[in-house]
Amino acid sequence: MPSGGICSWLIQQYFPGGQPGRAKGEHFLMARILITSALPYINGVKHLGNLAGSMLPADVYARFQRLQPGNEVLFICATDEHGTPAELAAAEAGQAVADYCREQHDIQKRVGEGFSLSFDWFGRSSNQPNRELTQHFGDVLEDRGLIEERTSRQVYSVDDKRFLPDRYVEGTCPVCGYEKARGDQCDNCGSLLDPVDLINPYSSVSGSRNVEIRDTRHLFLLQSKLQDRIRAWVDSRAAEWPQLTSSIAYKWLDEGLQDRSITRDLSWGVPVTRHGKPRPGFEEKVYYVWFDAPVEYIGSTVEWAEAKNENWERWWRTDKGAEDVSYVQFMGKDNVAFHTVSFPVTILGSEEPWKQVDRLKAFNWLNWYGGKFSTSQKRGVFMDTALELLPSDYWRWYLIANSPEGSDTAFTWESFQASINSDLANVLGNFVNRITKYAQSKFDGKVPAEGQAGEAEAWMVKELKTRLPQLQAHYEAMEFRKAAAETRAIWAAGNEYLTKAEPWVKYKTSVEQAAVGVRVGLNLAALFGIIAQPVIPDAAGKILDALGVPADKRMMGFGAATDYAGLLDALLHGLAITPPPVLFAKIEDTQVAEWTERFGGG
User: What does the alpha-carbon distance between residue 399 and residue 54 come to, in Å, rounded to a whole number?
Assistant: First the structure.
């Protein structure tokens, strides 16, 4: 074996040419990838549906891309803090809205860390960078003739003593007759609505039907002027988008873009100004949360740059270096139209060189036993409570393996238990436990050097040569269910290999032949830990630590040039390994019964 320490050996053997997945002499082209997740709203800890529909897949993708040699990845998120729900939640908590938002941001940040969400920055839409950028866009859009003042008719609740923002007016949809349509959109038929169009409107704040239609002055974004330009832009991107994303965008375009009010009669939000001064008549108004929230992707990057002494413009300004950035967004389907139509109107309408999204991954709903998770109704399991029940890897694996990509997916305790016990405890955990403990008991806890590869090893090489590039391709395509299924299939192939190799049987007659199976098994355990990193990073880290794989030598990247046979003999011969503690405890029927009673379901 080569002389020198494990690091130099791994560079030569496990990572040919100094990097994984490439033969000697090949070079990587560095990619710059900007990733944003839909901003979690500030009114309380998010439920598992929020996690599954944006933040978690964004994190998995960011982790995967960071594992590709040479990539530069920036993963940005923030709390969305403006709008009526924040005001109402603060009032219910008996706090000033600014204090409430500050406290809730800290809570959401800690919970995200508990789920190992690897944001490079988790900002706040109420911070100064977003305020200044939002006001800048308001100015430049008006300078371009795309904003004008209009007198509009708005629903006023006499009992609540306030104008009601769109989402706080409910009534019967004039298109399909659905009786709980919101003032901005009908969840039943998807039609865009104006609150004054609702039949029998009422306040969803108090339930009062004592409402009136009153005149008020607001700023309108003239989206209709950019109808053709937005369609052309969507046409240029649609081939890179999932069908769910493009279908929602085209539905809005086919219905015809409507000029939309971008201000609200509220006290909490970005103040409406004109060239840095309060706008006359708008002193008691703020920008609509859906106008300022997407701007926070940029604002949060500014926060990151200021804190880290970095350059934010090279990520967002195509005249300052962002022309080579690949920008990827993640969100639930209810946010798609705002990011494929409304925010592009802001960016394109500014006629400034801002980076636009390239790929937009949209998700359907993760439902709770057939019904929706709900923050307001406290329906389902929420992120903080989930961490009290089980480690984050359990939830991460299940939510990615059952990602609501092609259709809505129902969470059930029974399917959760089956997935964890089978995939994590049996297929992965049992494999790592068996091979490391056997190496400890029969080979002094070291990677054995004896013996030559045979038929079983050739079969395993063939499996890896087929499956690892497929895994790579699924991640590149952001097909998360397929990536999880392929990961499990690779783990399962390792178990089948051990059945073929039978080191515990062969040890009775040939220690050398047993050594081959143990050596390959340990290398497979290391490989399994490496490919597990995007989805279950904590368990993956424990596996790789136990096998002595250095932190800077855990990269992915599998293609035609990969030395797949070398992957089965990558660990330094004689390297000391330590069996990790039990990686995954099985979920018992008694736990499922307890959780069903506590949270519902069944």
Answer: 11
